[in-house]
Design a protein that fits this description.
Blueprint lengths: L9 H51 L19 H4 L19 E5 L28 E9 L78 E5 L4 E4 L32
Antiparallel strand pairs: 1-2, 2-3, 3-4
Length: 267
């Protein structure tokens, strides 16, 4: 005689469900953290590729920094993201995988050449930089571009005569008016004094201060930064003495020479 199978009791089913829920609560954050680490690594790789491409640019232009030319759409014949395509044609190099905007990177304030009198920066070359290992070449920024790219326009269709709409983002993003340490913003994009008063970057994306470095950033609250010597590093906050946008910096916190767009002579 075949015996009857014993069914699970309600209590046993509830215990199994509870165990599954506990395991899910433990493992889901682990998976999410691993996914974010992978995105942060991809973002760092984007910045490394940008730096490498522009060092090739410097070789062709006697070390002179690329010009800052205003708000330029992707696919135009100028703007630093468009310039980079002569040396690296990777599509999407300008987008951080953790961002909600199309263009998520900017140059450091001093890492570009400017027309005379424009924020007092002027033209410069890499030989003007005092500390290449601390000088910000490219970094993550609040970012711009909230509508999809047109796949039938340049650069996605190189045979097209059309460029992307300006609303797809700024292909010449440059932190030209940002001072060292001035990296915190409220929900309206106004500068605030410290990290604890600053809002998450997702609240600002595509709206205000689009070209500026901002903390807290996209990757576990931090940002990737590539320095002029080519090394990339993740930072949770601005680190005085370890990074600068000033060609002749970095200077201590509170030093008047940290003002945006100004290179003071050596003193």
């Amino acid at each position: 005689m075949v015996g009857l199978r014993r069914a699970f009791t309600l209590i046993e089913l509830l215990v199994v469900i509870a165990i599954i829920a506990i395991l899910a609560a433990i493992l889901f954050p682990v998976f999410a953290s691993a996914r974010e680490r992978a995105r942060a690594s991809a973002c760092a790789n984007n910045l490394k590729q940008m730096s490498t491409a522009f060092h090739m640019y410097f070789e062709d232009w006697d070390g002179v920094f690329q010009p800052c030319e205003g708000w330029i759409p992707l696919g135009a014949s100028y703007g630093w993201i468009n310039d980079i395509r002569a040396y690296n044609k990777t599509l999407g190099i300008w987008k951080c995988p953790s961002s909600n905007v199309n263009i998520a990177y900017t140059t450091g304030g001093g890492a570009a050449s400017y027309p005379p009198g424009f924020y007092h920066w002027g033209e410069a070359s890499i030989s003007d930089v005092k500390n290449p290992d601390k000088f910000i070449q490219f970094c993550e920024c609040i970012g711009s571009g909230t509508i999809p790219f047109d796949p039938n326009a340049r650069p996605f269709n190189p045979n097209s005569n059309r460029i992307q709409a300006p609303e797809t983002g700024d292909a010449d993003a440059t932190a030209d008016s940002q001072a060292d340490g001035q990296v915190y913003h409220d929900a309206n994009g106004n500068w605030v004094s410290s990290l604890d008063k600053s809002v998450p970057i997702a609240m600002l994306e595509g709206r205000v201060r689009q070209w500026e470095l901002h903390f807290p950033g996209r990757h576990s609250g931090g940002n990737n930064i590539v320095f002029l010597d080519g090394h990339v590093k993740w930072f949770k906050d601005w680190k005085w003495g370890e990074m600068t946008m000033r060609r002749k910096g970095p200077y201590p916190k509170g030093d008047r020479r940290n003002r945006a767009g100004v290179d003071f002579p050596e003193e």
